[in-house]
Amino acid sequence: MDKLLLATDGSKHSKNTIEQAIKLAKKFDTEVTILYVIEVNPQQGYDFFASYRKKEEELVNAGEEVLKKTAEAFEEQGIKANTRLEKGNPADIICGIAHEEDFELVILGGRGLGKISGVLLGSVSNAVANCLAKNIMIVK
Fold first, then answer.
1. pLDDT computed for residue 55 by the predictor
2. Which of 24, 29, 108, 122 has the most CB within a 10 Å radius?
């Protein structure tokens, strides 16, 4: 395996995802790209108003901080990781990058919904699982 894409949102659930990505990267001496996607709601169009531009800046700063901390976790294990911040629909961005840049494995977190959390995947992980014909690891 040459290329691994780790999609993270910085949530407490992503800790297990990062740990699994580190294990695989060490085992296979794999190139790692850490991806954080700022979800853009096209119906709100935050670029049209100053308050939304401020919110965008806060979201970018938060995303950069998540990427920095995640990359540090890899570096502590002697693994170089590239970071990437994108804006848009998370599932679309993850699928597009994984396909266009030919990642061999995509790792992301799965999150249950409501009272049946063990049965359903989160909306992003479910959408990615359905749009990619690549290896995907969904970590709970």
1. 81
2. 108
**19-49 pLDDT, tens per residue?**
999 999 999 999 999 999 998 765 554 445 5
Q: What is the pTM of this model?
A: 0.85
Q: Rounded distance, CA 32 to CA 8, Å?
A: 13
In the DSSP assignment, the letter for residue 45 is -
Q: Which CATH architecture has domain 3-80+90-139?
A: 3-Layer(aba) Sandwich (3.40)
If we measure between CA atoms, which residue out of 73, 78, 68, 67 comes closest to residue 29? 78
Q: How far apart are CA 51 and CA 96, in angstroms?
A: 30
The pair of three-digit structure tokens given for residue 95, joined into one six-digit string: 């699928």
Task: Count the neighbouring beta carbons within 10 Å of the beta carbon of residue 89.
Answer: 17
Q: Which residues pair with 5 in a beta bridge?
A: 33, 106
Sorted by where each begins, the domain ranges of the chain are 3-80+90-139
CA-nearest of 128, 12, 137 to 66 is 12
> What value does the mean pLDDT take over residues 45-58?
62
